[in-house]
What does this fold into?
Amino acid sequence: MNDLTTEILLANPQGFERAAEIWRAGGLVALPTETVYGLGADARNDLAVARIFEAKGRPRFNPLIVHVASVDDAKDLVEWNDVADRLASAFWPGPLTLVLPLKSGSGLSPLVTADLPTLAVRMPANPLAQDVLRGFGGPIAAPSANPSGKISPTSAEHVKAGLSGKIEAIVDGGTCDVGLESTIVGLFDKPTLLRPGGLPKEALEAALGEPLGVHSAADPLVAPGQMTSHYAPGASVRLNASEAEEGELLLGFGAVDCTLNLSASGDLREAAANLFHHLHALDAMNSKGIAVSPIPNQGLGVAINDRLKRAAAPRD
Ligand code: TXA
Ligand code: MG
It folds into this structure.
């Protein structure tokens, strides 16, 4: 389907009502969250969820995060436990996704979990996301609202550029505050970091009082969507560059002479919020390559470097 008229909905009660109406009818609506824009569908509707994969061109084996408006709504979907309670009271609503055993009778489409016995669930902090979820009153499955393998969207314009004509609507909630996808933690025998993201590992470990487990690449329960090449702009990407070479644009960090700077003052929070935005902007300049300054590998820098490594990976 490539011939839909994609409506741009204002983030007001009429817009939320329209979004809920489209979701109830099995349609796709992109919604703003504090991390990145999500491409949402009713998580209980097989056809609607299948359309997410189709619109993104996403491999079927890659499961989706379900977004809920409250902790109680999450408890209807997964086998909740004490560690989930501790992390949710510290960090929900917010950029943290918890992976827990799927509850039987959850009513979710098996496409959402790609048939895994676990479910990734999160309660977003963006008040507009909460309003639109509450207005619908059910679980919304939402991957990032970008064509599979491309840069994640941090504004309604990014979503429109990537998915216009393939989805029914976009709720325009401005730019995303965090700008990086959520941190994913698997709550199995030991809480395990599955994907670094908008909530730094250090904060999680402080709340848990113990280090997070690290997953082994061979573990099939590890966030399976983490292909090596991802977030890829059209141009090639070169990391840890001190300056741009001939034909390259420099994505800077700190006090450097560059085309666009993630944060001139070297602030990792600002850099995270700017990351996808700047990659989209540099991509639109159609250069041969994008060189990127070194980013300190601590706090949010871990997730920023993870995304940049994927953007730079050889593509199949
Ligand atoms: O911030 C975010 O997390 C954004 C916004 C829209 O909420 N969503 C997002 O979704 O980044 P997506 O689909 O682009 O990434 C979801 C990741 C994938 O790597 C997927 O493999 C993993 O979550 N995942 C989903 N369900 C899982 C499960 N049951 N076990 C392990 N990993 C899972
Ligand atoms: Mg994504």
Notes: The two ends are 25 Å apart (CA to CA). The chain has a mean pLDDT of 92. The chain has two domains: 7-214, 236-311.
